[in-house]
Structure formats: structure tokens, C-alpha cells
Amino acid sequence: MADTGNRTIRKLVMATAAVNTLAGSVGTAGDDDGVGTAARFDTPGALVCDSAGNLFVADSGKNTIRKIHVATQLVTTVVGTSGRWENILGSLPAEIASPAGLTFLPTGELVLTDRVGNVVLAAQF
After folding, report:
1. What digits encode the pLDDT tens for the residues 58-70?
2. pLDDT exceeds cutoff 90 at 118
3. Residue 110: exposed, middle, or buried by beta-carbon count in 10 A (0-12, 13-18, 19+)?
4. Is the dihedral angle over the CA atoms 40, 45, 22, 6 positive or is it negative?
5. What is the pTM of this model?
6. Which of 25-29, 82-86, 116-120 has the highest mean pLDDT?
7. 118 exposed, middle or buried (CB, 10 Å; 0-12, 13-18, 19+)?
8. Domain holding 91: CATH number?
9. What is the pLDDT of residue 93?
10. Which residue has the higher pLDDT, 98 or 67?
């Protein structure tokens, strides 16, 4: 789950009801890629998993889509550039203004909504 206020991504273990930090550091904003708590988020929101079990996070505060390899907790930026607040299409990472909703199509494309540009965009990896 995205813990937007604490700038982290949390993991809930259903069997034990334990909540752990998967990525990010409580209260520390940023855009650093890294492993687990070494990674930084600003305003994590929408989450979606791909067919391989990777978690994708819309970080609207940094204008990026981040990918978390759940098994290793490695966080990488896959769409957008932190600090760039505009929609520029083309080769990834391209640019996005304020990503909100995320989903994957059956074709494997990541579809995202951009609430500032009022557009729906697709990214293919």
C-alpha cells in the first residue's frame, strides 16, 4: 500500500497482519532509486503489479513512475524525470506531469492517467 503521508510503500502480511516498510523512509522526501529504505519517494499514490510481480508506483510529487522489484526491494525510475513537470512523449523515460491512476493492459502496456495534463498515456517496456 502507498503510505502517502509517510512517503513510503508498505507491505501487509495478511496471515500475521504485520505491516512492514517495503521501500522509502518515513518522512524523508526524495527521488532516489535504491534498495528498500534507501529509496526515496515524495507523494506515492497509485499502485499496480505487472504479470511478473513487480510493483509500479505513481509518484505524483516527483512526476515519475517507479518500479519496485518486490523480491529484492530494488526501486528504479522507469517513466518520467524528477522535477520535470510536463508531458513529453517518446522514448522512455519520457516526461509526465502528474501521474495518478495506473493499470496494465493485457498486451503488457502500462497505462497511466495524468491529472495535470488531463490525458491518458501508455508506456511499453
Report:
1. 999 999 999 999 9
2. no
3. buried
4. positive
5. 0.92
6. 25-29
7. exposed
8. 2.120.10.30
9. 84
10. 67
Helix H, strand E, coil C: the string for 5-60 is HHCEEEEEECCCCEEEEEEECCCCECCCCEEHHHCCECCEEEEEECCCCCEEEEEC
Cell triple for 50: 505487472
Looking at the 3D structure of the chain, how many domains does it have?
A: 1
Average pLDDT (18-45) is 96
Q: Which of 7, 13, 63 is nearest to 39 (CA)?
A: 7
- Give the C-alpha separation, 24 to 45, whole Å: 13
- Find out whether 9 and 23 touch, Cβ atoms under 8 Å: yes
Question: Which range of residues forms the domain containing residue 106?
Answer: 2-123
Q: Give the CA distances from residue 98 to residues 32, 81, 108, 109, in Å, rounded to whole numbers and listed in that order.
A: 18, 11, 22, 19
**In the numeric block, which cell numbers belong to residue 115?**
491529472
Sequence letter at residue 96: I
The H-or-E segment that residue 64 falls in is strand 64-69
- Give the mean pLDDT of the chain: 93
